[in-house]
Amino acid sequence: MTVRSIAVACQGGGTHAAFSWGVLDEILMTKKQWDSDARPERFDISAITGTSAGALCALMVWYGFARKTNLPGSGSLDDAIATLDGFWEGFAAREPVEVIHNKMSIAALEAKENGMPLPAINPYGIVDDIILAQLTMLGARKEYVDFQAMLNNACPDFETVDWEHVQMRAMVGASEIRSGAETVFDTRKNQEDSNIKTPISASAEHRWRRRLPFSLEGVVASGTLPTVREAEEIGDGRYWDGLYSQNPPVRELLAGTPKPEIPDEIWVLRINPQNIDKEPTTPETIKDRENELMGNLSLNKELDFINIANIWIDKYPGLANDKKKVTVRTIKMRHQTAVALRTPSKFDRSAGHMNELRQEGIDVAREWLARWPHDVGTYPDDAGY
């Protein structure tokens, strides 16, 4: 029997991450079935990472698996599925005013994409606050208009997590805007600070890298788009979306990490297409492609280094004393879906839009898992179309 240790890495990309919701659902359901059947080749999820909307996916899976001291029997695969599904179902616009607001927002973004000049909203001004207050008065749920309230509602017992018994590692990426430091909020840091685990090597951090304890505020920071929301303040830092630094964090799965904790495989849930069919020629499509390139380039540099490290381990066997080769694989949208999605759809919170992407994620993951581990590709060959 072979049980591989797997880390799942979830890219950000707005509500396009509903695809990752579907992939994760299928991964969890498949694990449950394979464990029940005692399949000869199986996997355990040792870590999950994410940025922006991918950070939301990572949080929900990790939180579901985490035992809470005030909830006997909590922390299971079934809890992870329920938490993930409950979050995305609640994230969708469902109250009448939410549905109307979502439709109007998407229509405005589509008009802007087609060249109509529209005024920009300053997240540091009062107009946005007034709009959100009016939406609440008209019946919008607090978790629809408030990012922090949304996470508090989805993870009500976060403060009672039993860190001593946390097995799965979770990390989310954010960008500290004043120092320029790429920052990872890491559950292992919580355990180190509580003297549950020995601190990992300091070589994993330096002036331009920060590793902080995992928190709901850290997940908020990871999804703070500077054009939409004021920077998230945590300690002495002010944070924007992790897209600008790590999308999602991967390096920390290896850098300074003890060999027994390094995963055998990393499965990257890629929702930003690596390649597209034609050159963008309008300001909004150019901006959208810049966003995709930014997120992919930061990720690819980390994945490329893992491949280099694998080559070094083969060439210099002594390196294998404290490191090990890691196989990187990609699970991505179908080509026709990826090239059809645009910036406005990243903000579409309609249940129909997100359920379509979730179903595609389920279908793609089911077909992919049916071929794993011997008949699926590896990075970089499997990253593009």
Helical proportion?
A: 40-55%
Unreliable parts: none
Content-based structural category = alpha/beta
Span between termini: 33 Å
Rg value? 20 Å
Number of helices: 13
Q: Count all strands and give the number.
A: 9
Largest sheet: 9 strands, mixed
What percent of residues are in strands?
A: 15-25%
Mean pLDDT, nearest integer? 93
- The helix/strand order is EHEHHHHHHEEHEHEEEHEHHH
Gross morphology is globular
Structure characterization notes:
This protein is α/β, with parallel strands linked by helices and 385 residues long. It is built from 13 helices and nine strands. Strands 1, 2, 3, 4, 5, 6, 7, 8 and 9 form a nine-stranded mixed β-sheet that branches. Strand 4 (182-186), helix 8 and strand 5 form a beta-alpha-beta unit. Helix 2 packs antiparallel against helix 3 (77-91). It is globular, with a radius of gyration of 20 Å. The mean pLDDT is 93.
Concise summary:
Helices cover 43% and strands 15% of the residues. It contains 13 helices and nine strands. Strands 1, 2, 3, 4, 5, 6, 7, 8 and 9 form a nine-stranded mixed beta sheet that branches.
Give the SSE layout.
Blueprint (H helix, E strand, L loop, with lengths): L1 E9 L7 H20 L3 E11 L1 H13 L11 H15 L4 H18 L13 H11 L4 H4 L1 H8 L14 E8 L5 E5 H7 L15 E5 L2 H7 L9 E3 L2 E5 L23 E6 L12 H33 L11 E6 L2 H6 L2 H4 L4 H21 L14
Parallel strand pairs: 1-2, 1-8, 2-3, 4-5, 8-9
Antiparallel strand pairs: 3-4, 3-7, 6-7
Helix pairs in contact: 1-3, 1-13, 2-3
